[in-house]
Amino acid sequence: MTTLIDPETVHHNDDIAAAQPQIALFLDFDGTLVEIAPSPEDVRLDRRVAPALEALRTGLGGALALVSGRPIAFLDEMLTPHSFDIAGLHGAQIRVDGEIRSQSDAPENMREALRDLVRFANSHVGIIVEDKRISAALHWRLAPELKDEALDLMRQAAAKLGPGVRLQEGKSVAELVPASASKGSAIAWLMATPTYAGRRPVFIGDDITDEDGFEAVNAMGGLSIRIGEDRESHALHRLASPTALRHILLEAAEGGSLTASSFTRD
Predict the structure, then answer these.
(1) Tens digit of each residue's pLDDT (9 = 90 or more) over 208-219
(2) For residues 232 and 253, what is the distance between their CA atoms, to the nearest angstrom?
(3) Into which CATH architecture does domain 110-178 fall?
(4) Where in the chain is the domain with CATH 3.30.70.1020?
(5) What is the DSSP annotation of 21-67?
(6) Which of 130, 201, 236, 259 is the least crowded, having the fewest Cβ atoms under 10 Å away?
(7) What is the pLDDT of residues 99-110, one digit of tens each?
(8) How far apart are CA 14 and CA 163, in angstroms?
(9) pLDDT band at residue 28, thresholds of 50, 70 and 90?
(10) Strand, helix or coil at 113?
C-alpha cells in the first residue's frame, strides 16, 4: 500500500531539523554503551554498535568521541576495526584523528601503590586490581562486603601519592588517577578543537565518574544524559538503560540523522 505524505509536512519537519544546532557526541563506555559486567574483562559490546557509531561520526562531521575510564588500547580492541577519537583514563589520554594529543605522566610511586593493591587483592577473594599504567583501579563488585576496607586502602594510597593524584570513586570501584585528568576537562579540550568547535555538546554517562562531564556540558549549554537509576545527578536528562541508548543510536544510524532531540523525545 502506498502512503501519501503531505509535502508541506515534509518541508516543515526538515525545517525543524535544520534549526537544531549540530551536536558533538561524547559517550562513556561501561554502563553506557555496554552493560556493567562482574569484572572489567567480561564486558560485551553489541556487534552492531561500532558500525553504527562509524555511520553517526560521518553524519556528525567527525564530532564523536568516547570519554571513558578505560585505556585507549582497550577501547580500540572493543571497537575494531573502527577507530574513534577517545579521551581515555578519565581524560588522562586524549587521541584525535588517530594521534595522541594529550597524555598525563604516570604519577610517581604508582608502582608501589599498585603492589599494595595487588597484595590486598591476593588476600581477599573477589577483589580485582586493574593496572592501567597511568592509573590503577580497585574493584569490589564481586565482594561488596569489602567496600569499606577497599575504600580505606585506596584513600591511604591516594594520600601517600600526594597532590598529583586524586581518588575517583565509581560503581563498586575506586581509581587512582592523575589529578589534572577529568572527563569534564577532556570534553572541554575536545570542544576547543576544529572538528568539535561551535557544536552543541551531548554527553552520555552512567556513573559518579561522569558527573564532572555533565557539569562541563551543562556550562556549555549542552545536553547531559545519565543512564540508569534515578539518583542525584547533574545530568539534565535520563535514559533507562544501555539498551535504550543503543536503540536510539542504531535507529539514528539507519535513518542517517542524529540531533539532540533524538535523545529527549518520548
Answers:
(1) 999 999 999 999
(2) 31
(3) 2-Layer Sandwich (3.30)
(4) 110-178
(5) PPEEEEE--BTTTB---SSGGG----TTHHHHHHHHHHHTTT-EEEE
(6) 236
(7) 999 888 888 788
(8) 52
(9) very high
(10) helix
Domain 23-104+181-262 sits in which CATH superfamily?
A: HAD superfamily/HAD-like (3.40.50.1000)
Helix residue ranges per DSSP H, 104-163: 110-123, 147-161
| pLDDT band per the 50, 70, 90 thresholds, residue 29 | very high
Catalytic residues: 28
Preceding omega of 81 cis (within 30 degrees of 0): yes
Per-residue pLDDT of 44-78, as tens digits, reads: 999 999 999 999 999 999 999 999 999 999 999 99
* Closest among 145, 170, 219, 155 to 30, alpha carbons compared: 170
Give me the sign of the Cα torsion angle 153, 154, 157, 159. Answer: negative
What single letter denotes the amino acid at residue 72? I
The residue assigned the cell 531539523 is 17
